[in-house]
Amino acid sequence: MSTKALRLGTRRSKLAMAQSGQVADAVRRVTGRPVELVEITTYGDTSGEYLAQIGGTGVFVTALRDALARGEVDFAVHSLKDLPTTQPEELVLAAVPVREDPRDVIVARDALKFTDLPRGARIGTGSPRRMAQLNAYARAHGLDIETVPIRGNVDTRIGFVRDGELDAVVLAAAGLNRIGRSEEVTDFLSVDTVLPAPGQGALAIECRAGDSAQDAALIAALGELDDPFTRVAVTAERSLLAALEAGCSAPVGALADHLADGQIVKEMRLRAVVGTTDGTRMVQLSTTGPVPDTHDRAMALGRELAAEMLAQGAAGLMGERAQ
Q1: How many CB atoms lie under 10 A from the CB of residue 227?
Q2: What are the residues whose beta carbons fall under 8 Å from the beta carbon of 201, sequence distance 6 or more?
Q3: Which of 195, 90, 80, 176 has the alpha carbon at shortest distance from 134?
Q4: Would you call 314 helix, strand, or coil by DSSP?
Q5: What is the pLDDT of residues 87-132, one digit of tens each?
Q6: Alpha-carbon gap, residue 118 to 108, rounded angstroms
Q7: Catalytic: 119?
Q8: What gap in Å lies between CA 157 and CA 107, rounded to an integer?
Q9: DSSP at 315
Q10: Catalytic: 129?
Q11: How far apart are CA 104 and CA 56, in angstroms?
Q12: For tag attachment on the chain, is the N or C end more exposed, with fewer CB atoms within 10 Å?
């Protein structure tokens, strides 16, 4: 490979720049080449609408993919949960690095935990998935909360709490960890309480799937950053999302995790939930089996669990399904 600088396409947000910077450091190590960040504004960054209104699917990635296709950048870094489940033929998902903490967290006033919030507490989130599960948990445990739709970056969202407009907001642990603000978390939500979005906590490194020696060399180099365990887990989660015909903003939670016997990983468990945003109706199922040893088997695992959920009425809980 040449010594020419590689151009990494990234969104402009503080979180996107932080995680892209971490990937850039890793790429420099494996390639020995300089990496420069190319900031790209996406529709999701400029729109003031809630993600559920604009569909969610692809709004944070389309501009990055267009820049890749035009040759303006050599590779791009996405939050995997933002990626549509259909992969364009001209692009390849070259690496899925080791996953960060996939959990959701609460940042609340007075350092309160979720279950200690006062009656009528206002909790901000832009995610129908989080709303559905928080409301279902509150209903089941006699808590009185109000989920409030919000948008904005981490500073904006935490600002709603600092200013007293909200009692708490829900954010992704991974994002706060990556920007060095995990000390602001007042409560980690167990995945038994709130399942994360499919792919949450994982990054996707994407580049062109060209036939040239240069493209092949870059794919191979980026592939050194791939984590097989993370890759197979998120493949199963995204396969389930695709089989449900649900977009990134649908109220679907899913998490595949590996079950170990001592130091040896023996099995993989895939859990998923679909629910109405008010938490009154939920379909929640799981399956456990051998760790898939191929892409196709990971895909099959997700499809099979999705079929069970659809058989139990999941389709009717998601509102308008992705096209």
Answers
A1: 15
A2: 99, 100, 101, 102, 103, 172, 173, 174
A3: 195
A4: helix
A5: 899 999 999 999 999 999 999 999 999 999 999 999 999 899 999 9
A6: 11
A7: no
A8: 9
A9: G
A10: yes
A11: 19
A12: C
CA 260 from centre of chain: 24
Q: What are the pLDDT digits (tens) for 199-257? A: 999 999 999 997 788 889 999 999 999 999 999 999 999 999 999 987 666 789 999 99
Is 207 an annotated catalytic residue? no
Q: Token pair for residue 247? A: 């977009």
Of 146, 135, 173, the closest CA to residue 251 belongs to 135
Determine how β-strand 187-188 pairs with β-strand 104-108.
antiparallel
Q: How far is CA 147 from the centre of its chain?
A: 20
- The residue behind tokens 């935490």 is 158
- Ranges of beta strands (E only) in 80-179 are 91-95, 104-108, 121-124, 145-148, 168-172
Distance CA 143, CA 161 (A): 20
Q: Which one is catalytic: 151, 181, 269, 281?
A: 151
CA atoms within 13 A on the CB side of 316: 7
User: Does residue 151 have an active-site annotation?
Assistant: yes
Q: For residue 44, what is the DSSP state? A: H
What type of residue is 95?
Answer: A
End-to-end, the C-alpha distance of the chain in Å comes to 40
276-286 pLDDT, tens per residue?
999 999 999 99
Burial class from Cβ neighbours inside 10 Å (0-12, 13-18, 19+) for residue 297 reads middle
Q: Is 11 a catalytic residue?
A: no
Catalytic residue among 74, 82, 104, 167: 82
**82 catalytic per annotation:** yes
Other C-beta atoms lying within 10 Å of the C-beta of residue 163:
8
Q: How many CB atoms lie within 10 A of CB 32?
A: 10
